[in-house]
Backbone:
């Protein structure tokens, strides 16, 4: 997976002051990943060193100036365009950019008064990359994701870098194992996905053949951050079953792109559970762990979710998990019966999730 990185984080002396800001969390990836260094400001034709510049936060139209009011907006836009072109050519879907920079800032930038004040916002290149569908994080956010993943899964590859489900770690709860599906799980998946009570409520037709299940496991569920749900076997060593072993697959859960939103910091929660496992709180348990994974290990800003208006079981899971109802999507899509259905839409921000975790732990 090629990763775009602000060149100053790789140790190149290309900052406005002629210095660099090497980031150890990024540099450690050199042995395993292709790092594509970018400096939008030099790509825009600005020299090193150069006059410091900031985005004027009080204006709706983009303007990048120096302390004397000199305008450098055109150079920043040119650099952003060349950065986006390079990142696309190299196939990068993730960029780790320098925090607070007028080019690379992600979430906060200096406000244009040259007083050291920060305001919510994005650098010019960060805006262009996000618009192009590239996920952008700054070095602090990236390091936090790596730290959270290492604490939970020592020695495993960071989840934030995963491009397939096989590259994702296995997750665990008190009663469940959540892990990437493999071809060995196809028969289990067919067993619950062929039940007409399961698929239609989640928006897909019941599996008619084992080939349907194979397609789901090997194609649909092979994307990153999609997991099978397995019940932990409770029998002990004296029963001939090792503690912590898993039973058959009883469902799936994952975080995928939300087709309703153009927000690279947002993923959508989706899930399905075998009818034999209903009414035991399993899905609420699985959702809470996947939300933790999304906010801590992926550094997401928001997770969304929808359910058809008739699906009260899903509604209860979503509400128990802390999501906020934001409205009805009328005629959102056709269900397997061919009818256009309304869906209820929900969202959960990272800030709200963190507050809820603090309230639980208090």
Residues:
């Amino acid at each position: 997976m090629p990763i775009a990185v602000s060149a100053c984080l790789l140790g190149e002396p290309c900052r406005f002051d002629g210095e660099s800001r090497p980031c150890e969390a990024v540099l450690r990836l050199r042995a395993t990943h292709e790092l594509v260094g970018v400096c939008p400001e030099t790509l825009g034709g600005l020299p090193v060193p150069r006059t410091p510049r900031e985005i004027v936060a009080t204006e709706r139209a983009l303007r990048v100036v120096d302390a004397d009011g000199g305008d450098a907006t055109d150079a920043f836009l040119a650099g952003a365009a060349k950065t986006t072109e390079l990142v696309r050519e190299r196939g990068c879907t993730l960029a780790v950019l320098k925090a607070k920079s007028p080019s690379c800032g992600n979430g906060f930038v200096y406000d244009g008064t040259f007083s050291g004040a920060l305001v919510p916002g994005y650098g010019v290149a960060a805006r262009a990359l996000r618009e192009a569908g590239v996920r952008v994080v700054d070095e602090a956010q990236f390091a936090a994701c790596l730290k959270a993943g290492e604490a939970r899964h020592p020695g495993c590859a960071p989840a934030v870098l995963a491009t397939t489900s096989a590259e994702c770690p296995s997750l665990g709860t008190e009663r469940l194992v959540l892990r990437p599906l493999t071809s060995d799980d196809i028969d289990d998946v067919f067993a619950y996905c062929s039940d007409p009570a399961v698929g239609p409520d989640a928006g897909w037709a019941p599996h008619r053949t084992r080939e349907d299940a194979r397609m789901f496991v090997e194609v649909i569920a092979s994307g990153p951050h999609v997991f099978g749900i397995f019940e932990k076997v409770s029998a002990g060593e004296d029963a001939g079953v090792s503690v912590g072993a898993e039973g058959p697959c009883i469902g799936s859960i994952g975080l995928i792109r939300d087709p309703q939103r153009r927000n690279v910091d947002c993923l959508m929660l989706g899930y399905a559970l075998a009818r034999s496992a209903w009414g035991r709180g399993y899905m609420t348990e699985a959702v809470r762990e996947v939300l933790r994974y999304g906010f801590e290990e992926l550094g997401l800003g928001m997770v969304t979710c929808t359910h058809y208006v008739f699906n009260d079981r899903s509604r209860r899971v979503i509400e128990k998990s802390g999501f906020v109802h934001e409205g009805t999507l009328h005629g959102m899509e056709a269900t397997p019966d061919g009818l256009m259905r309304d869906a209820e839409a929900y969202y959960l921000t990272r800030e709200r999730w963190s507050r809820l975790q603090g309230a639980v732990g208090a």
The longest strand covers residues 246-256. DSSP finds eleven helices and 16 strands in the chain. The mean pLDDT is 94. The CA atoms of residues 133 and 264 lie 6 Å apart.
